[in-house]
Every structure is written in C-alpha cells, then in structure tokens.
Amino acid sequence: MKKQQGFTLIELMIVVAVIGVLSAIAIPQYQKYVAKSEAASALATISALKTNIETSIAEVGQFPKLKATAAGDNNLGVPIVTAGTIAFTPKTTDQSDGSVIFKFTKGSSSSLLGAGTITLLRDLVGNWECKTSFGTADDSSLIPNNCTFAG
Q: What is the pTM of this model?
C-alpha cells in the first residue's frame, strides 16, 4: 500500500475554477466600491468649502470666482486634490448664486467615474443642491447620498 502524496490534477483544477469564479464576482464589486468612495470623498471635499464660500459672499457680496485648479487656493481654503480639479463658477454677475464643481480626471480616479463631475449649486437664497454627471438615472449606486443625477 502506498500513501497518497499531494493533490491530483482534478483537485487543483477545481481550486483554480473556484478562485476564478470568486474573482469574477469580487473584482467588479471592488471597483464599484472604490469609485463610490472616491465620489463621496470629492463631495466631502467641496462640501467643506461651503462655509468659506458663505463667508466670502458675506464679505464681498458675490459668489467667488476661481478657475479650475488642482494646486489649491489659500483665500478660500481649497485643498490640493489629485483625483481632479475644483472650480467656482458664479451664475450671475455680482450675485451670490453659483456653483462649485469637482471634475474627475481620467487616469487619476476610478474608470467608472470617467471625467464626470459633482456640482454643488447655490441659489440666491443660500440653499445648496448637489448634482452629478456620472452614473445613470437607473443605476444610482455610484452617486453619493443627497445628490441627484443631472445627466
């Protein structure tokens, strides 16, 4: 009688097949998780600027202007971001309404986000609204809470 030493080829093939099936399910879910966390981080970054924008509006009387930047801005406390750029866009001249836009950069952020944007819109009254340009109206799994798909 001989003792069995090692695994048979069939046993190894079964293990490889199980690992393949698990990774086929896990990798897309992980990519979606990373994209969702990047979107939530971008929203948190620009949401933190609302206080500084409100202070600027109170002092100057109009929505601040800032071109797209990845290097930060000391006056408004815009942080350095690597996943995209942040821009301030006044809606009307000499008014307090406008938007803060976080635009994702392809290659620096998840491929599921593409070159999408998260936009915080401020109206003349001071109400803020969040819109996104990634995801779809049917699949809102990437869109952060309290944001809506704008198209």
A: 0.81
Specify the residue for token string 């952020």: 109
Task: Say if residues 120 and 100 touch (Cβ distance below 8 Å).
Answer: yes
C-alpha–C-alpha distance, residues 58 and 48, integer Å: 17
Question: Domains plus CATH for the chain?
Answer: 10-149 (3.30.700.10)
Please choose, from the candidates 145, 151, 37, the residue with its C-alpha nearest in 3D space to the C-alpha of residue 83: 37
- SS3 call for 41: helix
**Burial state string for 94-132 with b = 16 or more CB within 10 A and e = fewer than 16:** eebbbbbbbbbeeeebbebbeebbbbbbbeeeeeeebbb
> In angstroms, rounded to a whole number, what is the distance separating the alpha carbons of residues 86 and 109?
14
Per-residue model confidence as pLDDT tens digits over 117-145: 999 999 999 999 999 988 666 677 888 88
